[in-house]
Amino acid sequence: SSLAIGTTTGYRLFSLSSVEQLDQVHESNEIPDVYIVERLFSSSLVVVVSHAKPQQMNVYHFKKGTEICNYSYSSNILSIRLNRQRLVVCLGESIYIHNIKDMKLLKTILDTPTNTTGLCALSINHANSYLAYPGSATSGEIALYDGNTLKTACTIPAHDGPLAALAFNSTGSKLASASEKGTVIRVFSVPGGQKLCEFRRGMKRYVNISSLVFSMDSQFLCASSNTETVHIFKLEHLTDSRPEEPPTWSGYMGKMFQAATNYLPAQVSGMMSQDRAFATVRLNFSGQRNICALSTIQKLPRLLVTTSDGHLYIYNLDPQDGGECVLMKKHSLLGSGKMEENKENDLRPPLPQSYAATVARQSTVPSTSTMPGYSEDGGALRGEVIPEHEFATGPVCLDDENEFPPVSIR
């Protein structure tokens, strides 16, 4: 329910508490050409990287308007990931892991396979701070790393071709991946790396999947690409939980196909067992980079799509029947922060209230006491200490506003 965007003039932070209202929480014009801005959940800790200094990471307390610290690296920063326990900086051929409570460098993973896009994923569950990144530049191997114990967990041979997208679910127990072909999305268990299921996004053409994300309850997985279609897959197996249905022609055919897979070659049966999209969105544009999120706003499940031209689209997702998602509102992210009225009348009648009951689930947040921070003697294992850095006078402390660690994920 929080959105951060980098712009040519700085960065902006938004709060998404309702479909109608887009509230601008903060705007900063101190650093131009921001291409990375990551906020620690709904706290005041923000990490920023700009094209003016692409090798420098700046960490701010934006409500106080103060800089906590900054670190410089040997090459351009390609991506940054953070949770309550770890801050991960990904370069083209190395990864740095910091302890977020005092920003101390804990580990440098050197000589990682060439990663020109900075592809990596970090579990938002700090008790399971697993990190995933490409284990090969030529194949779809995933390196799974434990960010708490600072040890390699396993490698997963996920795809034949190079990886294009990685995403953990909210508890850090599942990992989704897609290759550069973008035709198949696979979900693996963490930390074991066993394949749990796979979804076929399409067969006719290769696409560049730019966004892969789970819903907070891990029931849905969303994938967007450079095409006009966004796919949402359902992870739960309905055949295991649905009561016995009255016999129908389609039911008989389904059972026949299910039985037939036992006698078919592995490749063919695998193709038949792959689930297709549970729900879809047809965007009114293609070829534009976008990022998606599955969220619950006003007690209803929503699909959020942000685009590189500075717009936010909010769709309703029916968690029971799926199908085509309904566009509810379009907002401008580059205006004054107020909502932009849609000329095509995006507002649709509200869905029945029973719809909300199906998704009103309590999300459990692990206790922050289960994983204490690393002590000072944790040290930087392997690799040199970052040469240029300006450290804060004391450890990072946001406790004065009861913000750190955040008590809940909103």
Shape: globular
Number of strands: 29
Give the number of helices. 4
Mean pLDDT: 79
Q: List low-pLDDT spans.
A: 238-255, 264-273, 337-395, 404-410
Percent of residues in helical segments?
under 10%
Q: Structural class from helices and strands?
A: mainly beta
Radius of gyration: 22 Å
Which percent band covers the strand fraction? 35-45%
Membrane topology: Peripheral membrane protein
Pfam families: PROPPIN (PF21032)
Subcellular location: Preautophagosomal structure membrane
Biased composition (Polar residues): 361-372
Task: Walk me through the topology.
Blueprint: E1 2-6, E2 11-15, E3 23-28, E4 34-39, E5 45-50, E6 53-61, E7 66-72, E8 79-82, E9 86-90, E10 94-99, E11 104-110, E12 121-122, E13 130-134, E14 140-146, E15 151-159, E16 163-168, E17 174-179, E18 184-189, E19 195-200, E20 209-214, E21 220-225, E22 229-234, H1 238-241, H2 249-260, H3 266-273, E23 279-282, E24 290-297, E25 300-307, E26 311-316, E27 323-324, E28 326-332, H4 354-357, E29 389-390
Parallel strand pairs: 23-27
Antiparallel strand pairs: 1-2, 2-3, 4-5, 5-6, 6-7, 7-29, 8-9, 9-10, 10-11, 12-13, 13-14, 14-15, 16-17, 17-18, 18-19, 20-21, 21-22, 22-23, 24-25, 25-26, 26-28
